[in-house]
Specification:
The complex is a heterotrimer of chains A (about 280), B (about 325) and C (about 250). Chain A has about 280 residues and is mostly helical. Chain A has 12 helices and 2 strands, in the order H-H-H-H-E-E-H-H-H-H-H-H-H-H. Chain A starts with a helix and ends with a helix. Chain B is mostly helical. Chain B contains 15 helices and 2 strands. Chain B has a two-stranded antiparallel ribbon. Chain C is an alpha/beta fold. Chain C folds into 2 domains: about 170 residues, Rossmann fold; about 60 residues, no CATH class. Chain C is about 40% helix and about 25% strand. The chains are: A mainly alpha (about 280), B mainly alpha (about 325), C alpha/beta (about 250). The interface between B and C is medium-sized, with 21 and 33 residues. Chain A: It is found in: Cell membrane. Chain A: Keywords: Amino-acid transport, Cell membrane, Membrane, Transmembrane, Transmembrane helix, Transport. Chain A: This is Branched-chain amino acid transport system permease protein. Chain A: It comes from Xanthobacter agilis.
Chain lengths: ~280, ~325, ~250
């Protein structure tokens, strides 16, 4: 029981960082990015290649994932997403859905459908605290996630760009009036959002294999986390991540493995139904 | 009864006439008639989706749930109890309609992205359930319908042309339902709800009931398409029948590329996309796995950016279609 | 005689803010009552609360002896009360007639609703623009179509939220004539309007609100002379100016 709780928290911290990116994109651009999980997949591939050809541990390779996916995200926002920002929701939904299909299949073409994993020295190691066993890859990923979340918080609070992002999220018009370049800020926020998710993808590589379809496993999970925490709220996404992690590892005790995600979906629909006002407030 | 012979109606009649004559020109067991049948089936699916997505502007990303419910209900009734799929089709429609009504309770307040998310999750729930209840659904392996010769009473035919006729009839029926809804009292109410929900309520529209009616009808028709699909292909599995990109998104995409909320949209969209995909599959699938899907995504993005109102927008801009604004919703 | 509409101590709170704070009043058939108060006084919120768009925090609303609080707006409309929106919330993809027909469907089938829409449009002199796209209308036209749509639900109580804003004096007279004619048929009105001239000429009685509270209820002359009203609303010299115009 406590073991499951600890597992859940470790898993959940990473979910939090992964989902923070999605929340940030929604909070600033007002667009629900259905393609978001595909950037997680891209982050995982970057880290995998960094490990395979540069010998980088995924925990270090994650920095590379962050940078590369940030650049991709920035471009995608400038060339595609920017053009539907004022369009009706249907256009936004299907643009990002189209993006999701494109990225997934581009990966399939480029990397093939093989499952790829890394081997790192600490993969099967762990620490024992009384009855509780903590797997090293889970612990390291959690720590990396927490560090990045802290860095994000500092960036949003302290840096000029970070404050510009928050200003645009609150009131784009007013932000423009005080000299914020909203287009650049939108691209920055989108890039940052997908980069955070890519980073999260990289740090879980030691315990999750990557394939072009890995994003699909995370789509609903990410949205559940974000909705639980309140869309657009960074701290909320972290808390939501930990909650989802706990739910997942606790439900693993009760349900067979295939039904684990089912719990998540049910929670997801229930939260959407019961707290729509909470969601809208987050916007 | 004005505009009985409006250009839009003439074009529509021409379409169905051509569709009815087509089998005469094709080999009844050939590949081409199969593709033509798929065009019509996807047009019917997209039209079913269009009731919710176009008339009510509720962007569903989960219609695969109803499609799959239709396929599973009729097939399981047939395999386990020997009930003919003709009856199973009706049962499937009722089951899917009921599921849509249940789903409406938590989701009717949701709009835009949130509705899309909730419906997407619902289809995923269905997929997970179908995969895990192996004893009943056959699990990930899927279900096959054994072919025991042409038996019209059991919805089994040797000739593809027979399926073609059935699918054509289905498409005509779905289009008729769409037209009745769009031009009837509920059409007014749906458009009002789509455009301003608060104002619609104050003007006396029971917004919940209107949306509920639209989603139940849409789901039931989608389920009928699911049964027909299952009978036509003899085989399906959870991942393909509840597929997000293969079914849910494709239904929506056909309607959007054709023209959201218009009667002709799904027809034009299916006529354009399904053959295109067929060609892409034939030409590209040997090149690299994923290339045709990739192209599918590119087309979707392109369609959204170039003409978000769909191909029908070009038709409606022509002088002879301009005469009546009702063309956009009526015919 | 039982009043047609009665509000008992209704309250609406947003978070900690009391937008409507214990307002009670009544409205009789064939009566036109003006609701006045500075911007942000809670007039629109009060309207929304009466028709069921905004849930009440506490209090009761009776329409002809039936409790209507807690009902959804379409039920309230069915029982005979509806409102217009301050910024004309028409259905933009529909023609004028389609807008009105939609509302007429509340009590008629499609054929009957179309006929009803024709009648209402004729009454408001809107027949010439019946087939126009709503998007092409001027603001005063939109306000009139909005009123036509509300009338098509065949209300007994109609809440008008600034339908006369942006009207020329001549247009205003026309609308007031329509309202008076409807009043003669027994329709009751609650009217929010910033034009003092219109309010004074039209209303049998005035309600003054400020900070969500009802501060005065009486004839236009009584309310205009009420010290709290002068302080809250007319005190900024606006009254003098408006009076000079009138």
């Amino acid at each position: 029981m406590i073991q499951a709780l600890v597992d859940g928290i470790l898993l959940g911290g990473v979910y939090g960082v992964i989902s923070t990116g999605l929340s940030l994109v929604f909070g600033v651009l007002g667009v629900v990015n259905f393609a978001h999980a595909e950037f997680l997949m891209l982050g995982m591939y970057v880290a995998w290649f960094a490990w395979r050809y540069l010998g980088l541990d995924p925990l270090l390779g994650s920095a590379l994932s962050f940078v590369i996916v940030f650049a991709i995200g920035y471009l995608v926002q400038r060339t595609l997403v920017q053009r539907v920002l004022k369009a009706p929701p249907a256009a936004q939904v299907f643009l990002t859905v189209g993006l999701m299909i494109v990225i997934e299949n581009a990966a399939l073409m480029a990397f093939g459908s093989d499952y790829r994993s890394v081997s790192v020295p600490y993969q099967v190691e762990g620490y024992r605290l009384g009855d509780i066993f903590v797997g090293a890859p889970y612990l390291f990923a959690f720590v990396a996630a927490v560090v990045l979340a802290g860095a994000l918080w500092l960036f949003l609070e302290r840096s000029w760009s970070g404050r510009a992002i928050r200003a645009v999220a609150q009131d784009p018009m007013a932000a423009t009036l005080v000299g914020v370049d909203t287009r650049r800020t939108y691209a920055l926020a989108f890039g940052l959002g997908v980069a955070l998710t890519a980073f999260g993808g990289a740090v879980i590589l030691p315990y999750i294999t990557v394939s072009p379809t890995v994003g699909g496993q995370f789509v609903v999970l990410m949205f559940t986390v974000v909705v639980l925490g309140g869309l657009g709220s960074v701290a909320g996404a972290l808390a939501g991540g930990i909650m989802v992690g706990i739910v997942q590892s606790l439900s693993a005790l009760v349900f067979p493995i295939q039904l684990q995600n089912l719990c998540l979906f049910v929670i997801f629909i229930a939260v959407l139904a019961l707290r729509p006002q909470g969601l809208i407030k987050g916007a | 009864m004005r505009n009985l012979f409006s250009p839009s109606r003439a074009a529509l009649l021409l379409f169905f006439l051509a569709a009815a004559l087509l089998p005469l020109a094709l080999d009844p067991r050939g590949h081409l008639i199969r593709v033509a049948a798929m065009v019509l089936l996807f047009a019917a699916m997209a039209q079913s989706w269009n009731i919710v997505g176009g008339l009510a502007n509720q962007i569903s990303l989960g219609h695969a749930a109803f499609f799959g419910l239709g396929a599973y209900t009729s097939t399981l009734l047939f395999l386990k109890l020997g009930v003919t799929p003709w009856i199973g089709m009706g049962v499937g429609a009722v089951v899917a309609g009921g599921a849509a009504a249940l789903l409406s309770i938590p989701t009717f307040r949701l709009k835009g992205h949130y509705f899309a998310l909730a419906t997407l999750a619902f289809a995923e729930v269905m997929r997970v359930i179908a995969n895990s209840l192996g004893d009943v659904t056959g699990g990930p392996v899927g279900l096959s319908i054994p072919f025991m010769g042409s038996q019209p009473a059991l919805f089994a035919f040797r000739s593809v042309a027979s399926y073609y006729w059935i699918i054509l009839g289905l498409l005509v029926a779905v289009c008729a339902v769409f037209h009745l809804l769009a031009s009837g009292a509920i059409g007014y109410r749906l458009r009002a709800v789509r455009e301003n929900e608060a104002a619609a309520e104050v003007a006396g529209v029971d917004t919940f009931r209107v949306k509920l009616t639209a989603s139940v009808i849409s789901a039931a028709l989608t389920a009928v398409c699911g049964t027909v699909f299952a009978q036509f292909t003899f085989f399906f599995d959870p991942d393909s029948i509840f597929s997000l990109s293969g079914i849910s998104v494709r239904m929506a995409m056909i309607a959007i590329v054709g023209g959201l909320g218009t009667l002709g949209g799904p027809l034009v969209g299916a006529l354009f996309l399904i053959p295109l995909e067929e060609v892409a599959n034939a030409v590209l699938s040997s090149q690299a796995a994923g290339l045709s899907q990739f192209a599918f995504g590119v087309i979707l993005i392109g369609a959204i950016l170039i003409q978000p109102r769909g191909l029908m927008a070009y038709w409606l801009r022509t002088p002879w279609a301009k005469t009546r604004r009702a063309a956009a919703t009526g015919a | 005689m039982q009043p047609l509409l009665q509000a008992d101590a209704i309250c609406v709170t947003f978070g900690g803010l009391k937008a409507v704070d214990g307002v009670s009043f009544s409205l009789n058939a064939g009566e036109i009552v003006g609701l006045i108060g500075p911007n942000g006084a809670g007039k629109t919120t009060l309207f929304n609360a009466l028709v069921g768009l905004q849930p009440l925090t506490s209090g009761t609303v009776w329409l002809d002896g039936e409790r209507v609080c807690g009902l959804k707006p379409h039920k309230v409309a069915r029982l005979g009360m509806t409102k217009t929106f301050q910024n004309a919330a028409l259905f933009p993809d529909m023609s004028v007639k389609e807008n009105v027909t939609t509302a007429a469907l509340l009590r008629h089938d499609l054929k009957g609703a179309r006929a009803k829409a024709d009648t209402v449009l004729r009454k408001l002199d809107l027949t010439p623009i019946a087939d126009a796209d709503v998007a092409d209308l001027t603001f005063p036209q939109k306000a009139l179509v909005e009123m036509a749509r509300a009338l098509a639900t065949e209300p007994r109580v109609l809440l008008l939220d600034e339908v006369m804003a942006a009207l020329t004096p001549a247009e205003m007279d026309e609308v007031m004539a329509v309202i008076r004619a409807l009043k003669a048929e027994g329709l009751a009105f609650l009217v929010v309007e910033h034009h003092m001239r219109a309010i004074m000429a039209l209303c049998d009685r005035l309600l003054a609100v400020n900070f969500g509270r009802l501060i005065a209820d009486g004839t236009p002359a009584q309310v205009a002379a009420h010290p709290q009203v002068i302080e809250a609303y007319l005190g900024h010299g606006a009254a003098g100016k408006e009076a000079a115009h009138a």
